Amino acid sequence: MIDLVLRIFVSAFFVTIVALNFLSVSYAAEQKCDENTSHYIFSWPISEGCDDLPRGGTSKGADVEISQAVHKGWLRIQDPLLSKFERDRAAILAMAGGYKVDFNFIETVGFSAEFKRDRPYHSWGTEYIYVVEDKPEFISLQHLMVMYFKQDDGSVSEPMVMKHWRQDWTYQDRSLLEYEHSNTWVKRKVDEQRAKGAWSQAVFQVDDSPRYESLGRWVHNPSFSTWLSATTRRPLPRREYSVREDYDVLEGFNRHTITRKGWVQEEENWKLSLDDNGQPNADNPYLSKEQGVARYQLSSNIDFTPGDLYMTKTAAFWRAVRTQWSTVISMNQELSLKARVDGQPLFMPLFSAAETELDADEISEFVKATISKYVN
Q1: Which one, 106, 180, 309, 344, has least CB within 10 Å?
Q2: Structural domain total, the chain
């Protein structure tokens, strides 16, 4: 075990620094300002002047070409011989591929006299979505960032690869792990009628710990296929918890829509303030409402090969992490996690170890010991 720790520690400094910088930075959206005109995000006029230009990434990404081809996944969905169940599966699998992703969020409504709209958030990145598991009634999709940065001299950097979020889809799921508050989740049963024909989407953090889970149904027509979740609570995302302390959870729903050229995730969120018992504050529970749109457009010129190499190299490690989390979740009706141990969030030791040469026994030993430290 000592030798294992030493090997992981050797790579920890570099990986930790890279991870922290990468997870806090995305590509900057181009921002131009005209003092004499109103500025619009999602066609909402937010102000005159330049004080409300979007916040977001600070680095420049390499030029991305958007593919003009029709997504093969979309063509599969249109097969007239597919059953409803098979069409649902095809829609989920159609999210796989290499994309330029634009992230846009804006507060649209305030609910208190003191409300002041926060600056909108706008950034983008390039990522590949891999199918890591495909069973008839279960599909797991892993998002992986593969980023190329423009240098000051105009050249393009070597790729930076970083594991991103994961989404698991389960058909007719009878148990959901729902977020409560304060890094705590609770399992709730789903009755048979509600689960019939529906798919749950469980979303996981970069360290494969849970984020949120909800149930919804796919609807298909010749123009698009779409899935709408039920309303659910979520922890604050990094774009918020790194700059906000005036509310506790997001409460809302998300919609995934598959199109000919990619897909779109839309969110409608209420920023909810809780009391010491985890209940909505009696006087003014909701701070504001925000709209969010993430557009996944197929890329035709980004080399995602470094992502393929990373997925192959670290497959056994991250499979062990997913397995351990499944074990932890199955053993607990209520799950509470520590945000940090010894000053580190969980992704830091896991990211370091994933890049270290370990055998199967070492991986299992390290993963179990590390995750257990973060479970209350």
Answers
A1: 309
A2: 1
